[in-house]
Structures are given as C-alpha cells and as structure tokens.
Design brief:
Length: 139
C-alpha cells in the first residue's frame, strides 16, 4: 500500500482549512484517511504559530514507515527539520503551450506577409514616381 502524507480540504467556500493526513494514495483528496497528524490554516498570517500544527512524532513514525509527503506537506516538514526539502525546478513552467506557440508562429507569418506587401507596394510606387518625371521631361 502506497502511503501519502497530504492535505485534505475542509472549511466552507472561500474559507479553506486543511487537515494533514496519512492516507492510501488511491483514496480521494477529502476521502478516507488512516490518521490525522496535523492541520493547516492558510487564512492565518505566515508568522502565526497556529497556521501549521503537526504532530512531529507521528509524522516521523509515518515517514519511517515509507509514507511520501506531497510538495506542500514536505515544505512544512522541512520547516520542522524532519526532512530535507528543496524547491522544485521546472524550467518549462513559463514556456507557452503548443497552441500558444502555433498562434505566435501564425502572427509572425502574417506580420512578415504585411511587411513584404508593404515593401512591394513601396517599390511599385517608387517605380511609378520615377517614370512620371521622365514623361514630364520628354514633353
């Protein structure tokens, strides 16, 4: 059985409150859990001592049993010096998706076509203006 230490959401709409629970990874987020080991209230200030409350002994017990914390819970456990937490690195996070790249390419092609048409029109106008003075000079 794959164990997870994760957040289970409680609270009402727009007023989140989370329990830190140990559960089977296959269970739904707010579903059945094995044990509640703490809570997290994101509405409190970051320096408030009641924002994150974890039973460190139980957390250590479950980590020793092989439970894997989620990223957010790992951050909390790292702050409590139970595990070593490092900020994740996702270099593709800010990169646009497939459709956005296609739209950018289409926009670039349209701009190039407009520039080419403008350059062609300017060349024709220049050619026409060169012929006009030649006709006036011949008269």
């Amino acid at each position: 059985m794959a164990l997870k230490i994760r957040l289970a959401r409680g609270g009402s709409k727009k007023r989140p409150y989370y329990r830190i629970v140990v559960t089977d990874a296959r269970n739904p987020r707010d579903g059945r859990f094995i044990e509640k080991i703490g809570n997290y209230n994101p509405l409190l200030k970051k320096d408030d001592e009641n924002r994150v409350v974890i039973d460190l002994e139980r957390a250590k017990y479950w980590l020793d049993k092989g439970a894997q914390p989620t990223d957010r819970v790992a951050r909390f456990l790292g702050a409590a010096d139970l595990i070593k937490w490092e900020h994740g690195n996702n270099p593709q996070k800010g990169e646009p998706g497939q459709k956005a790249k296609e739209r950018i390419e289409e926009k670039r092609e349209k701009e190039e076509a407009k520039k080419a048409a403008a350059a062609e029109a300017a060349a024709e106008a220049e050619g026409a203006s060169e012929e006009a003075p030649a006709e006036e000079a011949s008269e």
